[in-house]
What we know:
CATH architecture: 3-Layer(aba) Sandwich
Strand order of the largest sheet: 7-6-8-9-10
Number of helices: 5
Structural class: alpha/beta
Strand content: 25-35%
CATH class: Alpha Beta
Low-confidence stretches: 17-59
Helix content: 25-40%
Amino acid sequence: MASSIGAGTTFSVFLPVLKTKKLSVEDESESDLSKIETTSAESHVSMELQKIDIDDQAAENSRTVLVVDDEEELRIALRSGLEQSGYIVLEASNGITGLACLDQNDGGVDVIVADLIMPLMNGVEFVERVQAAYPSVKVMFISGASNMSILDTSEFDDPIPLLKKPFQLTTLVRRVGELLTSTS
């Protein structure tokens, strides 16, 4: 921010750039799909972003999703895809900031998509704390880890869905929608 008397105030906003390894556009007769592949230290995620008429979907999906994952590029890609599907998306880089985000929004989150393996607080501990404070919030785990023993120590009342990386973004959007319409 820069300000000077008589000249006004200038705000500079710096937004993160999604770094992609490969970007290609496929022209299909039914729909226009873009494929984005992003590589991180732990996983390789391939996602399809389908162009959606936001005005039609927004009224149906105007629900809030909190994405909690320590991989910034993945969070950005998930946010973009979920927002294109009409969801309001909040993001956090770990369980501690995820809890702070929930508190800041008075638990006004409909679904949490949380990575299992994160620094500072793993996904299981994060979800246990979420369920204690906000029992109505629905949760789904995502993980690229091959060893799922972390789930063996959890004591959740209801099973929590797990989506294994790599996954298609359309699969995540569908699973979030299913979670929102489920009764448990």
